[in-house]
UniProtKB/TrEMBL annotation:
One of its GO terms (biological process) is DNA replication. The keyword Transmembrane does not apply. It comes from Streptomyces davaonensis (strain DSM 101723 / JCM 4913 / KCC S-0913 / 768). Heterodimer of SbcC and SbcD. Belongs to the SbcD family. InterPro entries: Calcineurin-like_PHP, DNA_Repair-Maintenance_Comp, Metallo-depent_PP-like, Mre11_N, SbcD, SbcD_C. SbcCD cleaves DNA hairpin structures. These structures can inhibit DNA replication and are intermediates in certain DNA recombination reactions. The complex acts as a 3'->5' double strand exonuclease that can open hairpins. It also has a 5' single-strand endonuclease activity. It comes from the Bacteria. This is Nuclease SbcCD subunit D. The lineage of its organism: Bacteria, Bacillati, Actinomycetota, Actinomycetes, Kitasatosporales.
Length: 387
């Protein structure tokens, strides 16, 4: 069986001030073309279909067009909700849409109930694990402490139990939306840390033939059977070096996996340039970036006059201008943002405690801080779901 694995469409999202809807529509046309040209048997979409719980109407219309195009080809599509989606909204009408071959899996309680598709070698069971927010689903899965690994492990126990009850030789595919250990994050993914831990081990997915992951925006191979497709478009300058693609996966009669990357169309190249303004304007090596979307970081010790207008004369598609003056690390004028770069909420809070009282928090105090951050994140998720 040939699968096309994609995820993280984020329909409705902009790139800085650029509306990406036309580029997202071009990607959908590309995806439908690949399905037709490469004889794809099933499409899997591993979450974050939309960029937010209440998407703009234009994004909903594009999603509707995508579903109609895929259904028109007669190729089944299995799709789960991600942490950016409203599971309830995405899942509206799922029972009716099922009849058209579009299988929306947004309910945590249905993790162990697969979509069954068949080829010449028998059945393939597709298990959809939508994004599982630990604070909201721990009771459903009977876990004592809310955590990503605990709820995903419990969901996968249901998958393996169902698979064990099926005919010998039934092949299996899991769709999941999670941060798996070994994956490389970018700046455009929403933080899903709980209890100080965001990642879960790839071993959670042992026992199935292929795991189609969503959430991280870079295409990545965690193991030969566990992969991220990545987002089809770049949504932050941290993705400037990404090769945006989908996975074309062949599952043979015995469940062996071979995978090929299929490139996605890019509306414009991305570039990150850094240095004093005058050097950026004069450096001939930067000519290749003159038609790209640009993030320019200026290192001048004194902020230049009209920097955006001047950088825009050479790089007319500059979208982001960052000031990061070259100074010694102990210079008192080093920016607060620079000192905090790369530090998580927990670490910043612990450093603050150490700063105001002269000693960092002990283990019990670290737990209090961690629980407070988890409670804030969980409350934000509940309010998002309720919108």
């Amino acid at each position: 069986m040939r699968l096309l694995h994609t995820s993280d469409w984020h329909l409705g999202r902009a790139f800085h001030r650029v509306n990406m809807l036309a580029a997202q529509a071009e990607f959908i046309r590309h995806l439908v073309g690949i399905v037709r040209e490469r004889d794809v048997d099933a499409v899997v979409v591993s979450g974050d279909v939309y960029d937010r719980a209440v998407p703009p109407l234009a994004a909903v219309e594009l999603f509707d067009d995508a579903l109609h195009s895929l259904a028109g080809l007669g190729v089944p599509t299995v799709m789960i909700s991600g942490n950016h989606d409203s599971a309830r909204r995405l899942g509206v009408g799922a029972g009716l849409i099922d009849r058209a071959g579009i299988h929306l899996r947004t309910e945590p309680s249905a993790c162990g109930t697969p979509v069954i598709l068949s080829d010449a070698h028998g059945e393939v069971a597709f298990y959809g694990l939508p994004y599982l927010e630990p604070a909201l689903v721990k009771d459903e899965f009977g876990v004592e402490k809310a955590g990503h690994e605990a709820v995903l492990a419990a969901a996968m126990d249901r998958v393996r139990a169902d698979l064990a009850a099926r005919a010998r030789g039934t092949r299996s595919v899991v769709l999941a939306h999670a941060f798996v250990t070994g994956g490389e994050a970018s700046d455009s993914e929403r933080d899903i840390t709980v209890g100080g831990v965001a990642a879960v081990p790839a071993g959670v997915f042992d026992g199935v033939d292929y795991t189609a992951l969503g959430h991280l925006h870079g295409s990545q191979t965690i193991t030969e059977r566990v992969r991220y497709s990545g987002s089809p478009l770049a949504y932050s300058f941290s993705e400037a070096d990404h090769r945006k693609s989908m996975w074309l996966v062949d599952l043979d009669a015995d469940g062996a996996v071979t995978a090929e990357r299929i490139d996605c169309p890019a509306p414009r190249a991305l570039a990150r340039i850094r240095g004093p303004l005058e050097e950026l304007l004069a450096d001939p090596a930067l000519a290749r970036h003159e038609d790209a979307w640009v993030e320019a970081t200026l290192t001048d010790t004194v902020r230049p006059a009209e920097p955006m207008a001047r950088i825009g004369e050479r790089f007319p598609h500059t979208l982001s201008l960052v000031f990061d003056p070259d100074r010694a690390p102990d210079d008192p004028d080093v920016s607060y943002a620079r000192r905090l770069a790369g530090r998580g909420d927990q670490q910043i809070a612990e450093d603050f405690v150490a700063h105001v009282r002269g000693a960092g928090p002990d283990e019990d105090e670290q737990t209090v801080l961690r629980d407070a951050f988890d409670a804030v994140r969980a409350d934000a998720v509940v309010r998002e779901v309720a919108r």
